[in-house]
């Protein structure tokens, strides 16, 4: 049974033919961890292609203006005593989560740089373009028991674009988010403010506002198995003290977590939280995650650095632990599944991959709104222009 019936390539469908218009959806993909154990697949050392920033108004800038500098409290001093609830809610400008940004900021970067991508001509046409956060969800899927996901996929000029769709359940939970959870989200950003300075030499300024519109995003190139990847992820800060100032190895991810007291609490932390931290930082090659542990009153009194490449050690001998090979093999299998499912090259056509814990990944097919996500400005610019804006115009 070959579920992918349609040829790749342009197929003009001007007249609505409900029966034949959409390709037949493919089979499904199982997610059981046992199916994906085996050797760790090839994963190219991620390299940074560029970066961009989003400002306090969520406006795009093709530079590093929003990059912050790691500035922890002195290690010889009294240790931290960060009040993570300070400034809530009066000095909090949360991003408007109703705005569906999809891949837009990344596409903005790609449009600007498509003519000067490394990897040679045609590299992009073979690649998968997405957010790091979407890949993180794929990596953790074999172990996830709570939250499902939906990924919309479109092929355009060969490239496969993957953009997350908020599930109805996730939307309902977001709209009904309990006040305490809202405050916890703030506390995570407040921790960043205590740990980061705006300039390399200076100190953090916790008196200012926390504005979650602001973001610095790194754009990375990698490859998983046979799948070339171009993805972008938000980076918390760079460490100006680090021996290698070269991105992404100078980057630091900041996290907060509940203070732990019993061995059982630590075990659960290793099994669940470290998996998410590992997946998120391993993908872009961010070498260290610095955790601030908060007490029930919301104060951080201790910090601990977790090297990304050592996180697996905490669960290596745990029967109920996670395995990086399973995560990466599943992700590779999903990308192969998506590549073979999305055959037609058409920016208006969407294969929607859906997953709920306990089940397999399933597929449905859609055209145009509400699932199509490649914006007209992107499609038109990519269609009309030659894929290179050479700074020195070549002779006609
Ligand atoms: P993460 O790994 O989940 O933090 O996500 P990425 O680093 O891949 O973020 C990609 C883009 O999505 C950045 O512009 C982020 O500012 C933005 N972003 C991060 N978290 C969220 C979220 O919860 N919802 C939405 N809509 N965007 C987010
Ligand atoms: Mg963080």
Automatic annotation (TrEMBL):
An example Gene Ontology molecular-function term: nuclease activity
Keyword Ribosomal protein: no
Bias-annotated ranges (Basic and acidic residues): 1-20
Recorded catalytic activity of this chain's protein: a 5'-end CoA-ribonucleoside in mRNA + H2O = 3'-dephospho-CoA + a 5'-end phospho-ribonucleoside in mRNA + H(+); a 5'-end FAD-phospho-ribonucleoside in mRNA + H2O = a 5'-end phospho-ribonucleoside in mRNA + FAD + H(+); a 5'-end NAD(+)-phospho-ribonucleoside in snoRNA + H2O = a 5'-end phospho-ribonucleoside in snoRNA + NAD(+) + H(+)
Cofactor requirement: Mg(2+)
Primary location recorded for the protein, binned into one broad class: nucleus
Cofactor remark: Binds 2 magnesium ions.
One Gene Ontology CC term in the entry: plasma membrane
InterPro entries: RAI1, RAI1-like_fam
Keywords, ordered alphabetically: Hydrolase, Magnesium, Metal-binding, Nuclease, Nucleotide-binding, Nucleus, RNA-binding
Entry function: Decapping enzyme for NAD-capped RNAs: specifically hydrolyzes the nicotinamide adenine dinucleotide (NAD) cap from a subset of RNAs by removing the entire NAD moiety from the 5'-end of an NAD-capped RNA.
Family assignment from sequence similarity: Belongs to the DXO/Dom3Z family.
Entry protein name: Decapping nuclease
Species, as recorded: Macaca nemestrina
